[in-house]
Amino acid sequence: MPSKDASDYILRISAGPSYDPSTHKTVLVNTDEPVHISNEHCEADVWVRVKDYRGLPKNSPTDSPYFHTPQHKTDRSSITFNFTPKHSINGSDLLFGNDFDHPIRDKLPYGFNQIFWAIKQAVDPGLQKDSDADKPWFYGALLSSMNALRIGGTEEEEEEKEEPDPKSKDQDPQIHPLYLEGATASGTTIRSTHTLPTERRARRAHFLSDDFKSSFSFDAGRNYCCDFFNDAIDFNDFTVNLPVSVPILGSKIHLMEYYNGQPVRYVLREGRRGEGEGDGKVLFVVVIELVEKGEEGDGEGEEVEEEEEEGEEKQESETKDEGGRGGGYVDEGVD
């Protein structure tokens, strides 16, 4: 049975283009180095920041300048990404959230519906769920889920470099990336056409309307920049700080009490899991795992091992080329 003490674990975060762990790469948390993702649905770059990070790879930064900007001083985590769809996706169909491979219905705390309502207020106002399913999910439309949404230009456009306003307290050229609400290039026309509010909270509320969501399209070949951040979820001690108190549990939920060994998985996908093509419409996933102390290795063992194997294969191939096919000089010991 997994330990219920968060201090017995550290974090390992990976990202990839599918649910298959073999396609994932280690996320270098709190750095400006993204995981690049490419599949039949999109091209994307993903960054993860966690305040007071305890995890892999070893010697990862525990903090990020991101958390010292005016708008993020109280936040505990951020999943920042940009993506370019390879086919157009209706605004109602592009979803962001969590899903699981195994049931969680027997592990949910008493009063979970009240807790879920409170989480919606704190994290994602458009969040929906099927927590009783064999493969449970919690998704919201990306249009109302994202704390920051910047609509960019198309691949055909030569986007102008976005220069930060030195007078603005909301921009810091030293933080990369720092995506703010807005638009660049022809994305400004998109926002204007859809009369999108300029303030991020108002834009999230705007897209709670099914009509507004369905009238929006994520265009093939257009770049979109997003930031999903909050001050409610603390991944270091696996707690959720609710904006209101719920009966018995109060305002702080200790998730370790309900932990059944499954990782927390964030998914950007077209359509809910099990609809249409089943699992086949994933744009990318970010997996946050709890690794028991003493079993973590170096956090990059598989990648290192693969590189060593490739090196051995290359060396063996070169040896065969030189000795077996006479492709190189062979020293026969004759002066």
TrEMBL record:
Composition skew (Gly residues), residue ranges: 325-335
Compositionally skewed regions (Acidic residues) per UniProt: 154-163, 297-313
Domain of life: Eukaryota
Domain Domain of unknown function at the cortex: 11-291
Signal peptide boundaries: none
Pfam families: Duc1
Region (Disordered): 152-174, 293-335
PANTHER family reported in the protein's UniProt record: UPF0590 PROTEIN C409.17C (PTHR34826:SF2)
Protein name per UniProt: DUF1769-domain-containing protein
Source species of the chain: Aulographum hederae CBS 113979
